[in-house]
Structure formats: C-alpha cells, structure tokens
Specification:
Structural class: alpha/beta
Helix content: 25-40%
Strand content: 15-25%
Shape: elongated
Oligomer: single chain
Largest sheet: 12 strands, mixed
Distance between the termini: 115 Å
Radius of gyration: 33 Å
Number of helices: 18
Number of strands: 19
Length: 605
C-alpha cells in the first residue's frame, strides 16, 4: 500500500537586500525555534518590548515549487550587551588599581549586542490576512534580517480584527505603544464588558487614570456603568463637558432594613456597645417592629404613626426630621416599648405596637424594661456613629449628589454613568452596600427585569473580593462578585476590578477576568500572584513590572492581540484626590486663607 510523504513546511530567506538598510535592526544568529530566536542587534537599534519582523519564504515540501512569502512577527524580550575584547579579569584588575579604562590599550569600542525575541506569529507578507497572526510551526532561518516594521503595519497586527470597519464600534482608544508613540493602541471593548477586566498596579502608578480613560471611551459608546467609589476618585467625571449630564452621583445611606436582624444586631454591637445575650433575644422583635412600623406607600398613615410615636417618646426631632428607615427608628421603637411597659396603664400602647408588627409585646414582663432600655442606648450610639459615616459620605459625593434609589434598576440606563460614593464608611460597610446593590442589579438582569447590559467597576477590589474573608460582609461580597465573574457574561453584567494589592484578591474572581491592564508593581508577593493567575502574561513581562514608568502598562488577554507595552493616554476627567506637590498645596491653602481673612476684615470695617 502506497503512502504519501508528510509535507514539512520550510522557511528560507527572502531575496537578499529586500529590507531597506535604515529599517534593519539585526541578523538572526545561533539557535532559533518557532517560539523564540536570538538576534545580533545593530547597537541601539531596538529596545525591550519593541515589535520587529522577519521576512521569510514558506515551502510546503521539498518537491513543491510553490513558495509563499510570509512575515514573522516578534517582540524583543531581553537585550544583552558585551565587549568580547574586554574580559572580566581585566575589569577586576582595573577596579582593584582604580585605573581609568581610557588610560589603557584595551579595546572599548567593540561590542556585541544580542536580543532574545519572542515569536508572536506569522502572516502573509502582503498583509492580506487582516492582521491575524497564525502560529509559526517552523523556525526562521539563521542569517535572516530582522527589521523595524512601518507604523501602519504594527498598528494592523496590534489591532487585529479591530481594524475591520464592522468592529470599529467595539474599539476603545486608550493608549499608544510605549516605544512607538505614533502607533495608537485600541482595545476590544466587547472583551472588557463581557469577559471582565482587571487593572492592577501599586499606588501612584496610574490605576484610576487608566480606569477613567476606559470609562470615558465606553461612555462615548453609551455603555451603562455603575462605579463603586470608596475614595471619591471618580466624582470628577461629572466635570467633563461631554459627560456632565450623564454622570449621576449618589451618596450611599446604609440600607438597614434590607439586612436581617442578626446582621443589624452585629452592626449595633460593632458601632456602639456590645449587645448582651439577653438583649439579643429581644433585638429581633424590636427590629421587626421598626421594619413593620415604617411604610412608604401611604403618606397619611405614616404621618399618623409618626405623630403617635412623637407623643409616646416625647421626641420633638421626629416632627422636624420625620421617621426614617434607619437605626434611629429601631432605638425609637425600643424606647416606645420601654415606655409602654413602664406605664401600668399602657396596655393600649402595647396592643397598638403589637398591631403594627411587634409580635408578643403584650406578653413582655417588667423585667424586659431594662432589656429594651439597653437596646435603645446601644442602638442610639450606633446610629450616631453611622450618621457620621453617612455625613462624610454625602460630603465626598459633593453637591448635587442624590440618595441611592431603592429601585436599583434606576442606576442602569442607556448612556448613564452612576457613581456610588462609599467614602466615609468602614470596609465592612462598603462591602455590604456594594453586595446589596450588585446582587440587586444582577438579579434584575437574570429575571429580565433590567433591559440594559451594565459594567460594574470596583475600585479597591481587594476589599470587596478579598482572598481571605474575615467578616460576614466580606464573605457575602465575595460570593456576589464570584457569581458575577462566573455567570455575568450570560446575563450581560461585566466587572472591572481595580486593585493595588492583587495578592489580596480572591484568586477565583481574578482568574475569571480575561483582560488585564498591569502597571508598575514592586511587591514580590503581588508579582508572583499575578504571574500565577494570569496565564497570558510571560515571565519577561513580569520582570519588567517594577521598572514601568507612571502611566505605562502591559496589556494582556482578550482585549488585545498579544501582550504589549503601552503608554495610557490622558483621560479628560480629573481625580478628586489626585496628588499635588505638598508644598504647593500648602501655599495655595495659605493664600486662600489670607484672602478670606482680608475679606472678613473689610466686611467688618
């Protein structure tokens, strides 16, 4: 039985002198594989992370005369520079004798520069493949010439299918090549909003700067975004002329009655004084009574209840501020129950409270008076602490901010950016507020009650999805985030995680992100964690992380064709707390203070 010989592709040099001398950067030397090769480099012709090309001829078999011209694309990983005529021994001798090398007869001008290059793939030499690079299955030939491609060609392979006109609607213009500033780098917005993005970097490397650039590009395409902002970094989006009417800022009043009684009891113990075991046995009754007492759909009935409560506990603040669904109301209900038990003739009040939802109050004994008094005092202390957090939060959210809508679907509208300020709250409260809102939005998408897709942005994501959860709030927050990370693609809910401590992030959540923007990172634990979790990131890219400049980043994953070093473009918006020179800020504050003082004296005069 006859068998046909297996075809073996072969790569050969193209015709000599096919590369212009001014574009040549070196010659392939030594061993070459389909994954990497070594390049004898013209001194100072390339830098690490430069993208270069090698032309070659591809033959399907020795007997096949058909030859296809191809272009092999590669990225410079490392560069080695040595002087073979300046031995190490000579260097040690000069150092020991403190002799200037220029005062010797040693040759100092002969250098050998070698670069190790990673093969990215290959395409037809005429570029007719649309920028898609195919796997190279046979190594390039030694003595081939490597050269610097033209900028349009580099842009074509970096963009890949994004250069196609039908895909322009998903292209986000966020950066330029770090070593070729004339080459714009756009990324795949579809990959970001459907398969999740992580922006990872140390403090001050440009995380929020980068996030704002991505947000502004998504906003230009009217994509709905909900931002969970722990520090006020994104309130400045409202100052961008094109976004002013589309950015909605919200201050986050803690939704007490969306929690269960055990969680609220824990909050009271944490913020005030710890509830005793006896108090805990009655707290759920008081909580449920307060929850049932507050009705929002019948203003007339609510007014009557508020008047009744004001009279029973003699609290005139209720007339001024009204009854609100918060910790104060729980304390007020405990006080009303205490007063009804103290009054020997308070049977009618006890029955009224029970009719409004206080189960079993008519069976309470005089011994419960002290218990309710303790609940009242501890809850009042917790309410005061929580109110201070809420006031700080409202201040950071700035004027014009609105309270969070009870219907979370209001946060997600076509072209709207919703900034939920979480500043002022402890990490535990921030995690709770986030998990409630995110879960509501995700559930609305699952039930098809929310028509628009949405991207959820988590600043300081390691606090919302930590690797090790220490509190109930964090555990719930992790579960919500994991569910969105794993199932969000099916329901049109995407995640953008931003973190300065990736090693503290939940590994499962980070691994579910398919796109990454990685900036300067010095901490060895963070570097090791990133290398382990992000499969598309190579060892050489990880080694570069400590030395990246501000604003420089490595793009990796599905948002780009291959890992590439870029410089992020400046966003139009400014961060609320972008760092100023400390001494400039001091002088500005002094000038402002002097101006106010002078005006005050003139007014009094």
């Amino acid at each position: 039985m006859a068998t046909s010989a297996k075809k073996t592709p072969q790569l050969n040099n193209p015709a000599p002198n096919s590369v212009a001398p001014n574009r040549s950067v070196g010659t392939l030397v030594g061993e070459s594989t389909s994954r990497e090769f070594r390049l004898a480099v013209t001194p100072e012709a390339v830098r690490e992370q430069d993208i270069i090309a090698v032309d070659a001829e591809l033959r399907q078999s020795e007997n096949n005369s058909t030859v296809e011209q191809i272009r092999i694309w590669a990225k410079v990983q490392t560069i080695e520079r040595i002087n073979p005529l300046f031995p190490t021994e000579a260097g040690h001798e000069l150092a020991a004798t403190r002799t200037n090398p220029l005062d010797t007869v040693l040759s100092l001008t002969v250098e050998m520069v070698t670069a190790v290059c990673q093969v990215l793939g290959a395409e037809r030499a005429d570029g007719s493949g649309g920028g898609k690079l195919n796997k190279l299955r046979y190594p390039p030939k030694p003595a081939s010439t490597a050269y610097r491609p033209e900028s349009p060609d580099i842009a074509r392979v970096v963009l890949g299918e994004l250069q196609d006109k039908k895909n322009q609607n998903r292209a986000l213009d966020i950066a330029t090549l770090s070593n070729r500033s004339e080459v714009n780098v756009t990324v795949d917005g579809h990959a970001i909003v459907t398969r999740h993005l992580a922006i990872l970097a140390m403090t001050g490397a440009g995380k929020s700067w980068t996030a704002r650039r991505v947000i502004e590009q998504l906003a230009a395409k009217n994509y709905p975004i909900v931002i969970f902002d722990p520090h006020g970094d994104y309130t400045g989006l409202a100052d961008v002329p094109g976004l002013k009417e589309r950015v909605h800022r919200y201050y986050a009043q803690f939704p007490i009655f969306e929690e269960d009684s055990d969680t609220v009891a824990q909050i009271v113990s944490n913020l005030g004084y710890e509830l005793t075991p006896t108090m805990l046995t009655r707290f759920s009754d008081v909580f449920q009574a307060a929850k049932s007492f507050y009705i929002k759909d019948n203003a007339q009935e609510m007014t009557q209840r508020a008047d009744w409560l004001t009279e029973r506990i003699n609290n005139q603040n209720l007339k001024q501020y009204g009854v609100q669904p918060n910790l104060w109301l729980i304390a007020q209900m405990a006080e009303a129950g205490e007063a009804a038990l103290r009054d020997n003739n308070g049977q009618d009040d006890r029955q009224q409270l029970e009719d409004w939802g206080w189960n079993g109050l008519t069976t309470y004994s005089k011994r419960d008076i002290g218990t309710l008094e303790g609940i009242k005092k501890r809850t009042n202390a917790a309410a005061a602490a929580l109110q201070r957090m809420e006031q700080t939060n409202q201040k950071v959210a700035r004027s014009g901010a609105k309270p969070l809508p009870t219907d979370r679907k209001e946060l997600v509208k076509y072209g709207q950016i919703s900034v939920v300020s979480l500043a002022g709250y402890t990490e535990e409260f921030q995690a709770t507020i986030y998990s409630i809102i995110a879960d509501n939005i995700f559930d609305a998408r699952v039930r098809d009650e929310l028509k628009f897709q949405v991207l959820l942005l988590l600043e300081e994501a390691h606090n919302f999805a930590p690797g090790n959860a220490n509190t109930t709030a964090q555990k719930r927050s992790i579960n919500v985030t994991r569910q969105i990370a794993q199932e969000g693609r099916k329901f049109g809910v995407g995640l953008m995680l931003i973190s300065q401590r990736p090693s503290r992030l939940d590994e499962t959540t980070l691994a579910m992100c398919n796109s990454y923007i990685i900036m300067r990172m010095v901490n060895p634990a963070d570097q090791s964690f990133v290398r382990k979790v992000i499969e598309s990131l190579g060892e050489e890219e990880v080694k570069m992380l400590p030395d990246l400049e501000n604003g420089e980043a490595i793009l990796s994953g599905q948002l780009t064709s291959f890992p590439v070093l870029v410089k992020i473009k400046e966003p139009a918006s400014k961060g609320e707390r972008e760092e100023k020179d400390a001494f400039d800020a001091l002088e500005e504050a002094n000038a402002e203070n002097s101006k106010k003082s002078k005006y005050s004296k003139q007014t009094k005069g």
